[in-house]
Amino acid sequence: MPEDIQTLKKHYELVIVGCGPAGMAAALNAKIRNRDFILLGSEFCSPKLSKAPQIENWLGFPEIGGEELRQRFLNHVKEKEISIVNFKVTSIYPGPPYTLVGKDKSLEADAVILATGVSVGKLFPGEAELLGRGVGYCATCDGPLYKNKSVAIIAYNSEGEDEANFMVDICAKVYYIPYYKEMVRLDPRVEVKKGKVQKIVGDRTVEQLDLGEEQLTVDGVFIMRETLPAEQLVAGLEMEDAAIKVNHKLESNMPGLFAAGDCTGQPYQLIKAAGEGGTAALQAIKYLDNLK
């Protein structure tokens, strides 16, 4: 079901970011109303649901297993001929139209629904302050800026290895700090560090990475998480209690930008995520209609 990234168009009416219950529910409503949209996700949609041994409160399906319900969601989407494009958005530039940037491609949308779930872990000290000034989330996007310089890549999964392997041909030095166990394809020229990040240090730009017992002198730091913090994804997005602040229409503080699911805050409930996803799509369609 995942669609090739090369089939993406340059512009859509609506882009839905995230293929969990909120994102898939939004996509279903957009499809039923015959809108020009795309659903962006990951290779494995909704891992949190897949790990739930039993779901007690999904109406009409008492005591269904999490993985069984996830497969039902995916089958429903497939039956509606909705493709999930494996595309990780690294930044979104405000609009409308909004510009969504990824590793290998960018696209525009008149409206966006964020259904990105909850980012695991807190930001590193110094990360938010130095974002765009040496801190980034896509090494291959910004690689040429660091020619003959030193960078560090902090990775929560093996995706970071590809980024490090790319950068090692550009940079004078590449450090790799893995937050996972088994590395599989890392270039031997990349220097692995086992310490844990204490702080990203710099005045106006990144100068050092503090690993506690060791200080790395670097010009750039790239952080490869499964899910980007929403406030780092879209500059100017209003947050409240570490969640995207939305009204009852699921509108954010930015025109045409909606949010649904766990990224809008507690309660972190499956039924709440799906409901918000469907509602966000309906509100986004009203917004698009008003644009005309």
Explain what this protein looks like in three dimensions:
With 292 residues, this protein is an alpha/beta fold. 24% of the residues lie in helices and 26% in strands. The strands form four sheets. Strands 1, 2, 3, 4, 5, 6, 7 and 18 form an eight-stranded mixed beta sheet that branches. A five-stranded parallel beta sheet has the order 8-15-9-10-11, covered by helices on one side. Strand 9, helix 5 and strand 10 form a beta-alpha-beta unit. The chain is globular. The protein starts with a strand and ends with a helix.
Task: Give me a quick take on this structure.
This protein has 292 residues and is of the alpha/beta class. It is 24% helix and 26% strand.
Q: Estimate the global geometry from the Cα principal axes.
A: globular
Poorly predicted tracts of residues: none
**What share of residues are in beta strands?**
25-35%
The helix content, as a percent range, equals 10-25%
Separation, N- and C-terminal Cα atoms: 32 Å
> How many DSSP E strands?
18
The SSE order reads EEHEHHEEEEEHEHEEEEEEHEEEH
- The number of helical runs is 7
Task: Throw out a few tags for this protein.
292 residues, alpha/beta, 8-stranded mixed beta sheet, 5-stranded parallel beta sheet, 26% strand, globular
